[in-house]
What does this fold into?
Amino acid sequence: MEENYLLSVCGTQTVGGESEKIELETSASYVLRNGSRYITYKEYDPEHPDGHFRTTVKISPEQVVTVMKGGAENHHLVLEAGKRHKCEYFTPYGSMMLGVYTHSVTSTLTDRGGELKVSYSIDIESQLASSNELILQIKEAEGNVNGSNRTENA
It folds into this structure.
């Protein structure tokens, strides 16, 4: 995985009127494969500083966003505007089924980068658990000699 892009991730979660924001800047790979864009990066777990897990965000031409995380907290989240999907969320303590309703997906992604913004809510047993906003901004890293997004065929 060639990490020749700079990724900024900003996630906001609102529970019971209280908001928490998480921000991350990291290197990432960004490729176009079979019409879909893929952003892949490593996240580090503060509880296990020697370990990391890989997160891949797939953005299809139909603006369906799939977030796949590996590691101790595996999950596969599908975000599609105007639709509710179920997601099994794995934790070290067991798994639980979540409902995920996507309010909007906005993308200005091009071959050189751009922004992806997703607004969604999560429910547990049909009870609202949180409202969420995820913003990904990706751009070529300084010194990137490729000059544009690579295309890979799978």
About this structure: DSSP finds no helices and eleven strands in the chain. Confidence is low (pLDDT under 50) at residues 145-154. The CA atoms of residues 122 and 128 lie 6 Å apart.
